[in-house]
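Write out this protein's structure.
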Amino acid sequence: MRIEVDLKKCTGCGVCREECPKGARIWNINEKARASNLRYCHLCMICASKCPEDAIRVIRDEIPNDENKKENLGN
Protein backbone atom coordinates (compact mmCIF):
# COMPACT_ATOMS: atom_id res chain seq x y z
CA MET A 1 0.00 0.00 0.00
CA ARG A 2 1.19 3.49 -0.73
CA ILE A 3 -0.13 7.03 -0.87
CA GLU A 4 1.00 9.17 -3.77
CA VAL A 5 0.74 12.95 -3.66
CA ASP A 6 0.97 14.83 -6.95
CA LEU A 7 3.28 17.65 -5.89
CA LYS A 8 2.30 19.72 -8.92
CA LYS A 9 -1.34 19.76 -7.74
CA CYS A 10 -0.85 19.83 -3.95
CA THR A 11 -1.18 23.28 -2.39
CA GLY A 12 -0.36 22.18 1.16
CA CYS A 13 -3.82 23.16 2.42
CA GLY A 14 -3.86 20.40 5.06
CA VAL A 15 -7.35 19.07 4.32
CA CYS A 16 -5.90 15.55 4.08
CA ARG A 17 -4.52 15.77 7.63
CA GLU A 18 -7.69 17.41 9.00
CA GLU A 19 -10.05 14.82 7.48
CA CYS A 20 -7.91 11.72 8.12
CA PRO A 21 -8.97 9.70 11.19
CA LYS A 22 -5.28 9.34 12.08
CA GLY A 23 -4.37 12.88 10.95
CA ALA A 24 -0.96 13.95 12.22
CA ARG A 25 0.19 10.35 12.67
CA ILE A 26 0.17 9.94 8.90
CA TRP A 27 0.24 13.41 7.32
CA ASN A 28 3.05 15.96 7.38
CA ILE A 29 2.35 19.33 5.77
CA ASN A 30 5.35 21.51 4.98
CA GLU A 31 4.38 23.48 1.86
CA LYS A 32 3.24 20.14 0.35
CA ALA A 33 1.55 17.09 1.86
CA ARG A 34 3.55 13.97 2.58
CA ALA A 35 2.22 10.69 3.95
CA SER A 36 4.37 8.68 6.34
CA ASN A 37 3.81 6.04 9.03
CA LEU A 38 1.40 4.20 6.76
CA ARG A 39 1.05 1.42 9.34
CA TYR A 40 -1.62 3.67 10.91
CA CYS A 41 -3.55 4.05 7.64
CA HIS A 42 -6.97 2.35 7.53
CA LEU A 43 -7.22 2.54 3.72
CA CYS A 44 -10.44 4.53 4.13
CA MET A 45 -9.41 6.88 1.28
CA ILE A 46 -10.97 9.90 2.99
CA CYS A 47 -7.81 11.89 2.29
CA ALA A 48 -8.10 11.30 -1.45
CA SER A 49 -11.84 11.97 -1.57
CA LYS A 50 -11.59 15.23 0.40
CA CYS A 51 -8.52 16.69 -1.36
CA PRO A 52 -9.76 19.84 -3.15
CA GLU A 53 -6.95 19.58 -5.71
CA ASP A 54 -7.43 15.86 -6.47
CA ALA A 55 -3.72 15.42 -5.68
CA ILE A 56 -3.87 12.21 -3.61
CA ARG A 57 -4.01 8.61 -4.77
CA VAL A 58 -4.22 5.66 -2.38
CA ILE A 59 -2.79 2.60 -4.07
CA ARG A 60 -3.65 -0.72 -2.50
CA ASP A 61 -1.42 -3.70 -3.13
CA GLU A 62 -3.34 -6.46 -4.85
CA ILE A 63 -3.98 -9.43 -2.60
CA PRO A 64 -4.36 -12.57 -4.71
CA ASN A 65 -7.44 -14.67 -4.07
CA ASP A 66 -7.20 -18.46 -3.62
CA GLU A 67 -7.51 -19.15 -7.37
CA ASN A 68 -4.62 -16.83 -8.19
CA LYS A 69 -2.51 -18.46 -5.47
CA LYS A 70 -3.12 -21.91 -7.01
CA GLU A 71 -2.21 -20.64 -10.50
CA ASN A 72 0.94 -18.99 -9.21
CA LEU A 73 1.98 -22.23 -7.51
CA GLY A 74 1.52 -24.18 -10.74
CA ASN A 75 -1.40 -26.30 -9.49
